[in-house]
Amino acid sequence: MRQIHLNAFDMACVGHIQQGMWTHPRDRSAEYDTLGAWTRLAQTLERGLIDGLFLADVLGAYDVYGGTPDAALRHAVQVPLLDPMMLVPAMAAVTQHLGFGVTVNLAYEQPFTFARRMSTLDQLTGGRIGWNIVTGYLDSAARAMGFTNQMAHDDRYDLADEFMYAVYALWEHSWDETAVQRQPGQFTDPAQVRRVVHNGAQYRFDAMALVAPTPQRTPVLYQAGSSDRGRVFAGQHAECVFVNGGSKMAVARLVADLRARAAPRPIRVFVGATPVLARTTAEAQALLAEYRAHSSTEGALAHAAASLGIDFARYDWDQPVDASPTEAIRSNVESMTRQLGAGWTKRMLADRFILGSRQPPVVGSPAEVADELQAWVAEADVDGFNLSRTVAPECWEAVVDLLVPELQNRGVYKTAYAPGTYREKLFAAGPRLAPPHPAALARAS
Amino acid sequence: MRQIHLNAFDMACVGHIQQGMWTHPRDRSAEYDTLGAWTRLAQTLERGLIDGLFLADVLGAYDVYGGTPDAALRHAVQVPLLDPMMLVPAMAAVTQHLGFGVTVNLAYEQPFTFARRMSTLDQLTGGRIGWNIVTGYLDSAARAMGFTNQMAHDDRYDLADEFMYAVYALWEHSWDETAVQRQPGQFTDPAQVRRVVHNGAQYRFDAMALVAPTPQRTPVLYQAGSSDRGRVFAGQHAECVFVNGGSKMAVARLVADLRARAAPRPIRVFVGATPVLARTTAEAQALLAEYRAHSSTEGALAHAAASLGIDFARYDWDQPVDASPTEAIRSNVESMTRQLGAGWTKRMLADRFILGSRQPPVVGSPAEVADELQAWVAEADVDGFNLSRTVAPECWEAVVDLLVPELQNRGVYKTAYAPGTYREKLFAAGPRLAPPHPAALARAS
Known about the structure:
16 helices, homodimer, alpha/beta, TIM Barrel
């Protein structure tokens, strides 16, 4: 039976995708700013043999709705927000197998310092780090970093391409596999370490990497763009792709396209899903109603406004939204129009974004939710799911205690972690990227 | 009795200041790349009520000696090297009181992303983070970041000044103390959050901080420059100053100058020291001989060459070194000439740098070492010591098990941690910087 991979999809903030849940009396998401909340989460996920914790990030506030960040602040919509990389070492210290996929926007990083930070995490986690490559889409983030506005969409991917080759050289080319010898008089053999000289359009540097080869060298590469240019990038670089939105049929077309672009490299495709799980259908429906009663419509609209580049504060509830977004987030709007139909309204959108992860929640008993996930695998050819949280931590406990055993009983979920690094666990292959991936081609030995 | 503060001074690499110790059979510094080594160290230090772990960092390789990084690589002189910030969350998770002073070179950071990273650490550690502000001195680091060489020394401090005001605004001005309300409909009060608009010579941005007020807001500020311009900077910004090199009398003059510049703000001054401790004088002398037998002269010279900007590979052992360094590290060379006298040679330098932390090791029984530390406090008016490692972890165990009890018996060392944040512990005052410090003046509420 084809195995299903599960990631927990979370963010170092109060409201990630489901807005308002922090007002639920059992919710503890406002503890996002304590180490204990994250180490407990990691241990829960590892108990459920969850493949990885996928951490979102964004570098600006959501200020499109009403032209201010006020709604985002009021409803704790991804603000306040911590740096997700800093959560990983503490979680790694209390787990042995859980992978970590951390979102970092490369547009505001320098290759040399970023490469060292990622290498440090790969080393300290024993090869359990992944990187969700993003180039950003918020003007507010661009302004925070000293630019007047966001780069054009396709230019961002050109920048990203160059950045990738720069960090591949640092991760794969600078140190030979056997450079560290640990023999008296020769801790490292200098003949096996070389400088990387990069003279590109966007980046220039001349340096040897400071970190010796780590278990995976290049972290597991995640990517989530579904635009034309985004798919070209994914085909070249991504090992895992996170897709969102649309029917199974629409996702199936996207998945087929992504696999064709990556071939002959295998890729793992994860689709977003928000399970609302209980022992029985009736209990799950009751839970959904309870969660909905705590959801924040204004928070959801503030989030959607930024994702789509449309100020919903200007629209009436049932007025068709004039969806002519900037080029930067066109693919998000197109995806929304595919899901809601032409002439969609703010009301339709608010319904969709609440408990939705841009898709309707998957509500039901363990068997019903498992059926739906298996249907996605069968019909859309996805490899797994990025599961969003609702009321935490009970939503994670439900996944671990109800869904995972159901999937195991069906023979579609592992009963123990595979050995090795995150990459080995995901692909049942080696710890390092293999040709024809460009990171492997950058390797000197 | 005046209390003595102790920091452990370490670095995420094999050879920090004492080169070659990794070849000693009891040394475990080659485990620098495991989380367990750091969590064990943190627990040992907290057992000894050590104030903080001060982590050095550098962004380039030492390639002045012989014009290549070969000697640094062979002897593991601060390379390979991990990102020190990533060590903190794991250590914080297993301790409650230990402070962390992390070196970050601001010259290659953007204020917005750096401020968020530091705020995240302040939040996750419960207010136990400090920042050792450096502007770098290595051409190799500048080239790694895309510059052709290092900025001029005083220009770096002008850049640093502007950077500090930028991050103060993000840490202190952007969010009011009571902005986070955690009430339904109002997690954060938007009226209490404001954008920082910075239009400086070096940095421009327009953003609200993403992190809510953390326990200390601004981390405890360490600084180590002793040049004229460095002292001006320290007088304005530093709360703790790390001084190195020279006689007690010379350090006393430097300390008096620093205190005068900072007044009326109190500062804590730490001087570097390398204890070689055992139960008896004879055992300590035997230990020193044992450590010296494992020390690496070439490693020490590779380190010194970079610190002083002088290629010692070109000199005979007893030839006076022509010390005309670049402006960037002039103060280091002047300090060395004060210590060794005019016409100093490579041989004198190698003797000094081995087991030296730029000062002779403090060797002896607990009583002898305590006498010497108290003499430093009495004669040089320092507040404490940054203790370098020799053979680890036994050197830390000796500090905790032998030196600390001796100091406690003399009434000059705490018998329990003070409550509160790192700043409260160090200054017995509030968790936030107070006026007239410019960070406090930046605060909006």
